[in-house]
Design goal:
By secondary structure, the protein is α/β, with parallel strands linked by helices. About 25% of the residues lie in helices and about 25% in strands.
């Protein structure tokens, strides 16, 4: 991950960060109202959001990539490598990936490891900066760094890595500034933006289910057989 996202804790301590977290939490709670008895992993910088599911969940773990340069703030958090999550196969029923994919050095390898740690039929929510939105083009918030995606681009990326996209959503139509009069009208901005300009949200949100059909995740090595023919000529077969 890249150094530009190191300001995450400071951002969420500001009035604008608190409003952004509240607006995004509303959309996430609409997708996953609860997670009774389930194991939930938050990957990236999920601390502002994991409390949505702590009540009733079997466990909620925050996994913060070491490249972020920030220490986890709770005992239920751990530092991880983005491509090598220190969890067994099928360890979690749900994964929230926020402030992670857009800043990853190896996004595809990260998704392959997320696929690995998800249980069969497990669910994933990915939150990324929307490339059409204002938040992706202003660098004074964490959403203005890394690789933004449109909802379509994100859906296709997930599909290539054996995730079946089920729902899309958006959030953060309010302009990314800390002016108090603007922040007080956040709900109006959200409602208006969703009604008249849904493609220009600040973030794209996609929920997907782990697909266990098909072959290996994209990028995995497929072994080949070597057949020796007469005369010592070899041929590789799939």
């Amino acid at each position: 991950m890249r150094e530009e996202v190191h300001g995450l804790p400071a951002f969420y301590a500001t009035p604008a960060g608190r409003v952004a977290a509240r607006l995004l939490r509303t959309r996430l709670a609409g997708m996953w109202p609860a997670a009774p008895g389930e194991r939930v992993l938050g990957l990236g910088w999920p601390q502002p959001y994991l409390d949505l599911w702590r009540d009733g969940a079997a466990c909620c773990v925050a996994a913060v990539p070491t490249q972020l340069g920030a220490m986890p703030q709770t005992r239920s958090a751990t530092l991880v490598e983005e491509m090598h999550l220190p969890f067994a196969d099928r360890s979690f029923d749900r994964v929230l990936l926020v402030h992670g994919l857009e800043a990853a050095d190896h996004a595809r390898k990260m998704l392959r490891d997320v696929w690995r740690v998800l249980a069969e039929d497990g669910r994933l929510i990915v939150v990324v900066p929307n490339r059409r939105g204002m938040w992706a083009h202003l660098e004074h918030t964490p959403f203005g760094h890394g690789q933004p995606y449109s909802a379509g681009q994100l859906s296709r990326l997930l599909d290539r890595h054996l995730f079946q996209v089920e729902r899309r959503d958006t959030a953060l139509f309010i302009p990314p500034f800390g002016w108090q009069p603007l922040l007080r009208g956040a709900r109006i901005w959200e409602a208006t933006g969703r009604a008249i300009a849904p493609r220009y949200a600040g973030v794209a949100i996609v929920e997907a289910r782990k697909a266990v059909w098909g072959a290996l995740p994209t990028g995995a090595t497929v072994p080949r057989r070597v057949v020796m023919e007469a005369g010592g000529v070899s041929q590789r077969l799939p």
